[in-house]
Amino acid sequence: MFPSKFDYHRPSSVQEAVQILSDNPDAKVLAGGHSLIPVMKLRLATPSALIDIGRIDALKGISRANGSLRIGACVTYNEIANSGVVQDAAPLLAEAAGQIGDRQVRYRGTIGGNLSHADPASDLPAAALALGATLHVSGPNGSRSVSASEFFVDLMMTSLQADEILTEVEISAASAGTGSAYVKFEHPASGYALCGAAAVVTRGAGGSCTGASLCFNGVSATAVSANGVAASLVGSDLSDGAIESAVSNLSIPDAAGDMFASAGYRQELAKAIGAQALRTARDRA
Amino acid sequence: MGISIELEVNGASVSEEVEPRLLLAHLLREELGLTGTKIGCDTSQCGSCTILLDGQAVKSCTVLAVQADGSEITTIEGLANGEYHPMQQAFWDNHGLQCGFCTPGMIISCVDLLSTNPQPSEDEIRHGLEGNLCRCTGYHNIVRAVQTAAETMNG
Question: Nearest residue of B to residue A55 by CA position?
């Protein structure tokens, strides 16, 4: 099915893209298009214009400097999953990106498009939350930074303003003694997460836990943090028993059910998948 | 508003004036007559519309023709070069098809798979083809075809 008619713009710089977006309040930003084009074909989205940022080279880099990993908004899932730099500095992100959709989708879909689309059942939002990512955005008044925890507002809603574009994702490079894992229980047909768990744990010199993070996709309207549960692991030996005990208290506020899985089932999945992610992260730390 | 785009499709230069909303799959099938590329689900799931865009397997029902401006495209019609591509021959030899509808997209995905992983395990083949659905469920022979093609192409 065809999308409804729209004007097409292909700016060559972020500045130019922001200007066009400011002039066209009903426009949408197009990166890889693998979230946007499907909803346009279903006429769930009918933007008057598309601003194709897919050829802006400044949005396509992966770099690591001063302990910080920076990934441009138009870097694809495939590039993230296979980047040695990302695998080393943020293995959780590479692992999650490698589980999105299928090969074809991973060649086209981008990290910026994924996070801006904010589909709660996608795989990157929880990873971005668990890694404490900082999202850099550009608008008509310049650039600003938003933490991932403040970025996801509601179902497919972010704190991006209508005239702002996500340009870069910044993540602190993993330190020694840190392990992570992304574990997904996926819908067998769509591959979307009924529940996806992103876990990061850090072990001190004696092996005890000095930091932990646990976040979920697919359970409620946005990716959510269960860092209260994760924090209860700090000081523990991260044994299976300690992890079981911590996740037994897990209750995700506003867990949502749909035709595929009830809210209660997702809560139970979160405990099982969350524990699995924490155990794997521990083994990798 | 028409937009001028230039592509190289199966080795031939193509210039077209297209509506921005024209999907690449429709450009290939309806403007260029390359109906080997199929449109199955039209929702980026089934992979029947898979083509190579600058060497990468993508679902052409989820790419705008304007996004492909300046790119090199290979469809199933462009794989054979005087004789069948080894993947096409392997599908023939192993009967890697039943009704044949998914076959063009399947073969393109298999070519892409071997280009990144020349000697995949059976598990890697099955996992690598998760973006292509065969509703006849003829997967076993498709996997055998990929294994045969891998042997031929590495031999």
Answer: B67
